[in-house]
Specification:
Oligomer: single chain
Distance between the termini: 25 Å
Order of helices and strands: EEEEEEHEHEHEHHHHEEHH
CATH superfamily: Alpha/Beta hydrolase fold, catalytic domain
Number of domains: 1
Structural class: alpha/beta
């Protein structure tokens, strides 16, 4: 079942539309947002842990001129369902993303993931190589060896949701400098999670990285790869971006002065290499 919020129409075609997709087998309701012309090449944007589609808001206007931009709230996040009895393992999150694209009639897409969203993007390419034409990773650490941020202390279920002070501490390393004004809606995304979904999704990413480093997974996929990395990332060593050069044909772009969330800190600088990449590898809908 699809329940749509509707949206403005241009020449009879919805340009911006959001909906709730009820997945097969009662697997949960997934929030989906689409922007841009429906006959343009599809670009799926996947947010990171404890975030939502809203983290991509500054980027969307820069991408819709040439793409059908599709965003989803992964299960447990944003406006999607947060069940306590469903798997939040990375392969299951990727499977749901693939089902969402199927339900939207998308046959080919460039998939872009921010942070742990890049891990979901890779898992989707592993499961559905015919669906994913190319991958772009934004500040996605290649392995746990590259992780430098301290573990969060704000995960006690008796103190959930975290206090405003804990939330701001948790989010602070997501940006290049201390004191960065964190958008309130991003803090709301964390407040809206349950303790179970917050901790379980974090553990799922760690588990996936423990199984195999991402460059090793990508090397056998044979997909065009763009890696964008804010050089002042305070969560993952930016020098680790060079690990992705082991993937044949990969392109790595370091963005000086930006941190873990360049899509928020400087959308234009982030969009520039992404659009150059998609102009070569995106596939227009039939």
């Amino acid at each position: 079942m699809t329940v749509s919020d509707g949206g403005p129409y241009v020449n009879g075609r919805a340009e911006s539309e959001s909906s709730i997709l009820s997945l097969n087998d009662g697997d949960g309701d997934i929030y989906v947002c689409q922007d841009g012309p429906r006959d343009a090449p599809a670009l799926l944007l996947v947010h990171g842990s404890a975030s939502s589609t809203r983290s991509w808001n500054p980027m969307v206007p820069l991408l819709t001129g040439s793409h059908r931009v599709i965003r989803i709230d992964l299960l447990g996040h944003g406006r999607s369902a947060k069940p306590a009895d469903r798997s939040y393992a990375i392969p299951d999150q990727a499977r749901r993303a693939g089902e969402a694209l199927d339900r939207l009639g998308v046959e080919h897409a460039v998939v872009v993931g921010h942070s742990s969203g890049g891990v979901v993007a890779i898992a989707l390419a592993e499961q559905r190589p015919e669906l994913v034409t190319a991958l772009a990773l934004v500040n996605t650490g290649p392995s746990l060896d590259a992780f430098i941020a301290p573990e969060s202390a704000a995960t006690d279920p008796s103190q959930w949701p975290p206090t405003d002070e804990q939330l701001r501490w948790l989010a602070s390393t997501g940006f290049s400098r201390p004191g960065y004004r964190i958008p309130e809606e991003l803090l709301d995304d964390v407040r809206g999670m349950t303790h179970h979904t917050f901790t379980t999704t974090m553990r799922a990413t760690r588990s996936y990285l423990e199984q195999r480093a991402l460059p090793d997974r990508l090397a056998v996929l044979g997909k065009p790869l763009l890696v964008i990395f804010g050089e002042d990332d305070r969560r993952w060593r930016s020098s680790s971006a060079s690990d992705y050069r082991a993937v044949p044909g990969s392109k790595v772009e370091l963005l000086p002065g930006l941190g873990h969330s360049p899509l928020l800190e400087d959308p234009q600088r982030t969009a520039t290499p992404l659009l150059a990449f998609t102009s070569v590898h995106a596939v227009r809908a039939d």
